[in-house]
Amino acid sequence: MQLLFILLVVAGGMGLSVEAGLLGPLGSEVGDLWATFSIFGVGAALTFMLMLFFSPRNSPSFFSQPAWTLVGGIIGPVYVVILTIAVPSIGIAMTMIGILAGQVFKSLVIDHYGLFGTAHRKIDQKRIIALIFTVAALALVAKG
């Protein structure tokens, strides 16, 4: 089962690269914020349709959740605007590796301290090496 989840997140990462490739040219044509809005508009419509058919009817109310859990709603558009602005300037590979380096670093901190209610997973030597390789990849792509 773990292998299936790993394959799913790798596929999701590939999808983000495609999204970045679409956002750069779209942002150049219609503006960065309109490109971001279009991505979230289509995504919201698709999510709404999926919710109609697949969402459990007896789940807790969205509005009963702590406000801090909704911060992702702010982070998502900021992330997409950054993609839209960065891709035309530094390319998809550099943008995605930079994003990945930030994700790995912050993920290690979140796991280590068990932030946001996640399980504690201590930072160990292997995780630090993974971060170093990610930063090295960023440096190599930047120089290439």
Quote the average pLDDT: 92
Which class best fits the helix and strand makeup?
mainly alpha
Shape: globular
Portion of residues in beta strands equals under 5%
Radius of gyration: 18 Å
Give me the count of strands.
Answer: 0
- Can you tell me the residue ranges where pLDDT is under 50 for at least 5 consecutive residues? none
Q: How does this model look, in words?
A:
The chain is mainly α. Helix content is 78%, strand content 0%. The chain has five helices and no strands. It has helices at 2-30, 32-54, 72-90, 92-113, 125-143. α1 (2-30) crosses α4 (92-113) and α4 (92-113) packs antiparallel against α5. The model has no long low-confidence stretch (mean pLDDT 92).
Detail the topology: elements first, then pairings.
Layout: H1 2-30, H2 32-54, H3 72-90, H4 92-113, H5 125-143
Helix pairs in contact: 1-2, 1-3, 1-4, 2-3, 3-4, 4-5
